[in-house]
Amino acid sequence: MASSADPLDVARLKAVMGHFATGVTIVAGMEAGEPLGFTAQSFHSLSMDPPLILVCPSKTVSSWPRIRTAGKFCVSILGRDQEALCMTFASKTLDKFADAPWAPAPVTGSPMLDSAMAWIDCELDAEHDGGDHTVVVGRVVDVEINEDAPPPLLFYRAGFGRFES
């Protein structure tokens, strides 16, 4: 076992953390009438009172600083059939919304992906430094469920999996 004086093996840390399955989301907002978004698996419910969520975009994500400026965003939770959509929003593709129909969220107007399992509409509450990520706290202002959606898309050990109910 490594002591606190030993440097941490980053590859080993990634391998261990990869054993924690997560859901997959797309975080989207608007800038000057243009929809922007990115894939995020670092997403969590933080508090029910007040209603808060946590999302942690990498500092290399170019769309987060632009979404931050608007101060509002919508999180779309992806279903098991949306791996391609996840990959599009994880890429540097310029028009990520070309094949992703969306509607404005009722409260913030942020993009809600039509085919998502559920949506969490948020206003930016706080940001914190998180090393190579930014820890974003969103105040939930509206939520919606797509009752017809399939089970969730999962990310596990650097790959995608599906939950069967």
Structure report:
- The chain is mainly beta.
- It has a domain at 10-41 and 64-121 and 145-157: Pnp Oxidase, Chain A, CATH 2.30.110.
- It is 15% helix and 44% strand.
- It is built from 3 helices and 12 strands, in the order H-E-E-E-E-E-H-E-H-E-E-E-E-E-E.
- A 7-stranded antiparallel sheet has the order 3-2-6-9-10-5-4. A 3-stranded antiparallel sheet has the order 1-11-12, with no helix packed on it. The chain has a two-stranded antiparallel ribbon with strand order 7-8.
- It is globular.
Termini Cα gap: 39 Å
The level 1 CATH classification of the domain at 10-41 and 64-121 and 145-157 is Mainly Beta
| Number of continuous helical runs | 3
Overall pLDDT:
87
Order the strands across the largest sheet as they lie in space. 3-2-6-9-10-5-4
What structural category arises from helix and sheet content? mainly beta
Radius of gyration: 16 Å
Extract low-pLDDT stretches: none
The helix/strand order is: HEEEEEHEHEEEEEE
Main sheet attributes: strand count, strand direction, barrel closure? 7 strands, antiparallel
Secondary structure layout plus pairing:
Layout: H1 10-17, E1 22-23, E2 25-31, E3 34-40, E4 43-48, E5 51-55, H2 63-70, E6 72-77, H3 83-90, E7 102-104, E8 111-113, E9 118-130, E10 133-145, E11 153-156, E12 159-162
Antiparallel strand pairs: 1-11, 2-3, 2-6, 4-5, 5-10, 6-9, 7-8, 9-10, 11-12
